[in-house]
Design a protein that fits this description.
Order of helices and strands: HHHHHHHEEEEEEEEHHEE
Pfam families: TPR_16
Helix content: 40-55%
Strand content: 15-25%
Number of domains: 4
CATH class of the largest domain: Mainly Alpha
Distance between the termini: 71 Å
Radius of gyration: 52 Å
CATH topology of the largest domain: Serine Threonine Protein Phosphatase 5, Tetratricopeptide repeat
Structural class: alpha+beta
Protein name: Thiol-disulfide isomerase and thioredoxin
Number of helices: 9
Keywords: Isomerase, Membrane, Signal, Transmembrane, Transmembrane helix
Oligomer: single chain
GO molecular function: isomerase activity
Organism: Labilithrix luteola
């Protein structure tokens, strides 16, 4: 399958594309298709000569889509062979022979048949058994259609085979395929499970402890107590001052010893009560300041207690199935 063979038949394809359109009464769309097909085919030949087989393959396929001709299958087969896609080359050559029929001369047919013998030794037949239908097959990331009962032609070598189905997880395997083999591959696709979490009841929701301000009750109690004691101290001070004035007046009266003793005793009593209340006031004021400092800020958060285990329910949906799971 040399390049010279394809170059020799370039003129044949160009003529076939030119002759595909009627001489008169042809639609403009068909004219554009013929022109595009001829341009893309020529570009494919150039890319093939440059060794850019992937780009050449794309141009040959676009040429066939624009202006179908059985002769393009020959170029497709040659390009796929260079890309070591032996299965694709074999299909292209078989389609070339089927569509070309008696339009292919004997020498060319013999050449293609000899190539097919070589290609059969470089391909394997793989039968797929999948638990889901319909399922699609991809080989080396190229779609190869739906899973069928008849074997699928696969090129020899390391192949990446994937099987997909709607609603199921894709399963991919990498296999080393030998030529002239007949293989059977079994795929068990697993459904894609969609879980719908039902909203938990208010009883099952854990409460996150909120930060709270410290209670100021001790401070307020101390403040009131200090105020009452300070008021009592002031009253005692006033009474003591009055008693002391009465005592001094009693001293001015001669022979007034009983009144002097009563005034002295009253002064001492009220002065002592005032001192006691004053000391209590100072102590209460100190405790109130301490209470103010201790009740400032927020209480440290406590670790949330784990709620008791409650029944949980989950709705589960899968292809052709639905159910409920949970803990009770």
């Amino acid at each position: 399958m040399s390049l010279s063979v394809r170059a020799r038949h370039r003129w044949i394809l160009a003529c076939s594309l030119a002759c595909a359109a009627p001489v008169t009464h042809v639609a403009h769309a068909q004219d554009r298709g013929i022109d595009e097909g001829r341009t893309r085919f020529t570009r494919g030949i150039e890319l093939y000569k440059e060794g850019n087989f992937h780009a050449a393959l794309a141009e040959f396929r676009a040429a066939y889509a624009a202006a179908p001709s059985f002769r393009i299958h020959y170029n497709l087969g040659q390009t796929l062979y260079q890309l070591q896609d032996y299965a694709g080359a074999m299909r292209a050559f078989e389609q070339y022979l089927a569509e070309g029929g008696d339009k292919i001369d004997g020498e060319r047919r013999k050449e293609i048949e000899d190539d097919l013998v070589k290609l059969r030794s470089r391909t394997a037949k793989v039968t797929f058994a999948v638990n889901v239908s319909p399922a699609e097959i991809s080989i080396d990331d190229e779609p190869r259609g739906m899973v069928q009962q008849q074997p699928l032609l696969v090129s020899a070598g390391r192949r990446r085979i994937s099987v997909t189905a709607s609603g199921y997880q894709t399963e991919t395997r990498v296999l080393d395929v030998a030529g002239a083999q007949e293989l059977e591959l079994k795929f068990e696709l697993k459904p894609i499970v969609t879980e719908v979490l039902l909203p938990p009841s208010s009883q099952t929701q854990s409460t996150i402890p909120a930060h709270r301000q410290k209670s100021r009750t001790p401070f307020y109690v101390g403040l009131v107590t200090t105020g009452v004691l300070a008021g009592g101290t002031a009253v005692m001070a006033a009474v003591t001052s009055s008693n002391h004035s009465a005592y001094e007046k009693a001293l001015e009266v001669p022979n007034n010893k009983p009144d002097i003793d009563d005034a002295r005793r009253a002064t001492r009593t009220t002065a002592l009560a005032g001192d006691i209340l004053g000391g209590a006031t100072i102590l209460a004021a100190g405790l109130t300041v301490f209470a103010f400092a201790m009740t400032s800020g927020e209480e440290p958060p406590q670790a949330a207690k784990a709620p008791p285990t409650k029944p949980t329910i989950r709705a589960v949906f899968a292809p052709n199935a639905a159910g409920v799971t949970g803990t009770f």
